[in-house]
Amino acid sequence: MNARFSYRQIAGIASVIIALLVNLPLIRLANRSQLAIFPGLPDAVFLLSRLVFHVAFTFFFIELNRYALLHKRYQSRLNLLGWYGVNFLLFLITTALFVAIMLLWYPERPILLLVTTYFRTFFVWGTALLVANFLTVLHQNRLIQAENEWLKQESLQAQLDGLRAQLNPHFLFNSLNTLSSLIREGSANTQPYLVKLSQVLRYSLQVQNRELVPFSEEMQFTNAYSFLLTMRFGNNLQIVNDLPPQASWLIPPMSLQMLIENAVKHNIVSGAKPLRINLTIDPLRNSIRVSNGNQPKPEPADGTGTGLPNLENRFRLLTGKPIEIVRSESEFSVHLPIISAI
């Protein structure tokens, strides 16, 4: 709840206050009874017994209902109305036990005085239910606020990680090296390479604050990024993109680029072991499938290791569905849920 009181401590404090308020008339009466000569008036022991009972009774029902309402434990067998019916039955049983004990302990007490316990305890029970519901709503609101704050932090972290990937010094260094080689060789691919590099950098800056982009825009960016990689690795890298370029879908920006980058970063790409990356549709899972040969490098690649977790968090937030990762001895694949634009 806060730095001082937990929800259980608040329940305890509320129980004491409610018990004192409901027994306040008897407290005043007990003070007067010390000078009174009339039998049947409550004494301090009887008052203390009922006060302790009401504190324990209130605390029990607050905590029972707070736990049940928060975790919805009753839903497997009862609806909310049925759960309150169980509460009422528990109220009748516990109060009857207390009255029976008091009658055995104080056989000379008028039954009317003990039966009034039912009416006072009914008020206590109703107040306990209200407090339990209030604490449950308060707890749920705090959980929602905490989750929203966590999601904001995750979104910010994803943006920061994306920005690092977008302006990754290694990527820029390798791209500029490739461009330099093309210029030096007088290659006809120099101008197309420069255009694609400009397209990749411009797109990465444009989508920084966007949660979703049209799939067609993402495809143009992915194709440009794939072109840069294939120019760099030559025949050692093959990226086969069989995704529909004009599909009416949405997608978190740079999702496909991150998966392609991960595949290149963590796998051997060489003449002896060329790497093939496939981008396809999986109709059974209704997902986009990005797969590559499983040929990991002998030593782990440098990186924060947060790319896939961040991507999964983004999809959970936007679709409520996780991404699916499938590993085998020969292949590694990631399935991204398709987000329809309609």
From TrEMBL:
Which Gene3D superfamilies would you find in this protein's record? Histidine kinase-like ATPase, C-terminal domain
- GO molecular function terms noted in the UniProt entry: phosphorelay sensor kinase activity
InterPro entries for the chain: Bact_2-comp_sensor_kinase (IPR050640), HATPase_C_sf (IPR036890), Sig_transdc_His_kin_internal (IPR010559)
Give the CC-aspect GO terms. Answer: membrane
Note whether Transmembrane occurs among the keywords: yes
Q: Where is this region: Disordered?
A: 288-310
The cross-references to PANTHER family, in alphabetical order and at most eight, read: SENSOR HISTIDINE KINASE YPDA (PTHR34220:SF7)
Name of the protein: Signal transduction histidine kinase internal region domain-containing protein
